[in-house]
TrEMBL record:
Keyword tags: Coiled coil
Pfam families assigned: Diacid_rec, GGDEF_2, HTH_30
Domain Putative sugar diacid recognition span(s) in chain numbering: 5-137
Organism: Caballeronia hypogeia
Domain CdaR GGDEF-like as annotated: residue spans: 147-276
Keyword hit for Signal: no
Ranges in coiled-coil conformation: 110-137
InterPro entries in UniProt: CdaR-like_regulators, CdaR_GGDEF, Diacid_rec, PucR_C-HTH_dom, PucR_C-HTH_sf
Family affiliation: Belongs to the CdaR family.
Residue stretches making up the PucR C-terminal helix-turn-helix domain: 329-385
Glycoprotein is among the record's keywords: no
Full protein name: Transcriptional regulator
């Protein structure tokens, strides 16, 4: 509110007053101008009674005699409006003081309640905007602040950097929305989440993506508890967004980490999880993914392209380049690993005889030079498949 009453709030006060009072009501700003009134002709005019209230910060009554002496004045009572001990305006009831006096305090209390509620709402919105900007700078790595300044900023806006948090990325296809409404829809979803789940921090980071952060249980001695807590966060946010938005979206959970740098790292892992999970999805029903289901692939995608990473890919490239049935053998490898390298379940999943599976595994060994019965070769092929799945 910043020490002033705007026409929106003034009109709201007048509307509420007319529901219970049969008198004309005027709301004046801190300069004494009528901002809203039951008499539209008075809006924008200067109110002499309000000027007297603003000068004394006290209630002022104007009877018939005073109204006749003071130009452009009508009988009534005028009361100051305070918000957190700041004089922000005046409210007046037109009529003989003896008739309207008893309603003055009631009207004053109602008006101040509306003003204070609006002030609180604006403060909460400012706090949310500060939190959004803090998170946005953290995940985009754009903050020029020192670690000390970051810690002070976090403390000032109520973000505890000691908490362990997981990032979630929610990605929408802008083609689902009406032209020109994409950002409005994303902001609506973000605002709904912030309003209904104040423990979450949400911010829009692009034309398609929302970032949402939630705290999870940190259990160094029992990492399974942290993962379980993060999965619950994913489930809760998915249901919340599904209840707000009927359009399709992709959702991914990042690794749970503490600290300012942890915000960026968790966000990065969430983005990679969404990309990898989407690439691996076998049906449209798979639209939400957890880092903890794809952690190896997410970790490997951070490897830079060097001769070492090229060596991981070489065996499968040889398989596809030298074998006529390379794609079939590659599919066999994927099912082999999905079934825990167990021959019988793998053969059943592929719908082939065990001897056929043995033959295919032999062909894979000949083409790649890698023996899946050796741990080093087993791991190398598995990593190569993970990188190929990116």
């Amino acid at each position: 509110m910043n020490g002033r009453i705007d026409s929106r709030l003034a009109a709201q006060i007048v509307e509420q007053a007319t529901k219970v009072l049969p008198f004309d009501v005027n709301v004046m700003d801190a300069k004494g101008s009528v901002v809203a009134s039951t008499d539209p002709s008075r809006v924008g005019s200067f109110h002499r009674g309000a000027q007297m209230v603003l000068g004394s910060a006290c209630e002022v009554e104007i009877d018939q005699d005073a109204a006749e002496r003071i130009p452009n004045t009508r009988p009534g009572v005028n009361l100051p409006l305070f918000v957190r001990e700041r004089l922000v305006g005046v409210i007046g009831l037109t009529g003989m003081p003896a008739e309207v006096r008893q309603f003055g305090k009631l009207l004053q209390s109602m008006a101040q309640l509306i003003l204070e509620r609006d002030e609180l709402t604006l403060e909460l919105q400012r706090e949310e905007h500060h939190k959004e900007e803090f998170v946005r700078q953290a995940i985009l790595g754009s903050s020029p602040l020192s670690s000390v300044e970051v810690a002070a900023w976090a403390a000032r806006i109520g973000i505890d950097l000691e908490l362990t948090r997981s990032a979630l990325i929610c990605r929408f296809d802008p083609g689902q929305f009406e032209p020109g409404t994409t950002l409005t829809e994303l902001d609506r979803i973000r605002d709904s989440i912030s309003r209904e789940c104040p423990h979450l921090i949400g911010t829009r980071v692009s034309m398609t993506d929302l970032a949402i952060f939630g705290s999870v249980v940190a259990a160094p001695s029992g990492p399974g508890r942290t993962e379980e807590s993060a999965r619950r966060l994913l489930a809760d946010v998915r249901l919340k967004i599904r209840g707000i938005c009927k359009t399709s979206f992709g959702l991914a959970l990042g690794i749970a980490l503490p600290g300012y740098e942890g915000l960026r790292q968790s966000w990065t892992s969430a983005v990679e999880t969404l990309r990898i999970g989407t690439a691996r999805a076998r049906s449209p029903d798979e639209y939400y993914f957890s880092y903890y289901d794809h952690r190896l692939a997410v970790l490997l995608c951070g490897l830079t392209e060097t001769w070492r990473t090229a060596e991981f890919s070489r065996p499968l490239e040889l398989l596809l380049a030298t074998e006529r049935d390379g794609p079939l053998l590659l599919h066999t490898l994927k099912i082999w690993f999905e079934q825990g390298a167990q021959p019988k379940p793998t053969a059943e999943a592929l719908g082939i005889h065990r001897n056929t599976l043995d033959y295919r595994l032999k062909k894979i060994k000949e083409a790649t030079g890698l023996d899946l019965s050796r741990v080093d070769d087993f791991v190398m092929v598995y990593i190569a498949l993970q990188r190929m799945g990116e």
